[in-house]
Specification:
0% helix; globular; Neuraminidase; four-stranded antiparallel sheet; mainly beta; disordered N terminus
Length: 304
Amino acid sequence: MRWALAFGAAGVLAALPSAAVARPASGCPETVASPSPEQENVSPAFSPDGRRLLFESNRRGADEVYVMSLASCTVKRVTAGRNPDWSPDGKRIVFQRTVRDSERIFVARADGARVRRVTRGAAEQPDDWFPAWSPRGGRIAFDRDTTDEVTGGERRNVYVVKPDGTGLTRLTSGFDVAAAWSRDGRRIAWSCGESLCVMNADGSRKRRVTHASGTNGDEDPAWAPDGKRLVFARAAASSGLALYIVRLGGRAVRLTAGTSGDNAPSWSPNGTWIAFARATGDRTTDLFLIRPDGSGLRRLTARR
């Protein structure tokens, strides 16, 4: 755990994405005294202007969505839910929430008001996971658990749906998770089995972009703003989850040491920072920032 540096009050400096910060933010890292024995701050998502992070936390005992101002590390609760993402105009959010023992997709205003359900289904199945709002605003990608009609085995496929719940379309057929839109909205990356794949937004021209031989799989892809690179988490057989960056058509390069379970990266809109979640103890997970070249590690949350 030595690589997971514990930063003090001078955590986030003036180079934060798109934020006009003239001096070190005195509130970083944000600390909280939580009643939960297993505090998790996970699933960060940069706002379209790069000034805020949505994330999921169980700091009050239940899974809830929070928003952090990166200029000060101040945090506000938004609503109950998990795995949040922003609409392209920053005025709404999408997230998943448990309904009668099943996971469903919801949208709300950015302040948590006017919650509206997007996906439906019979109680207890199928579950809908990891929503991602398209950059053009017209669709939401997500994962849905399904059952193979021939073998009866469990599968998970990538779907898209309009924010009003219409136009449900399945894009993949396999065990596919964690869909991520390119910044121009023309392509989707996802975890296709143990590797990463990319396809057109309509599901055509699928191709594999990583080959996870000798590892336990690649997951959690996020696009760079230039549309030429992906950051993702790779589960190495010997050292656990680490962040890697791959240029499409190239070889993956490791970004973090992988001794602390780094996962769920989100690339800032201006390309200068990557937010991610890291295990900081036996039962705690916190949010960090790092530059794409591996420098400038900054801690955003901590347990008091």
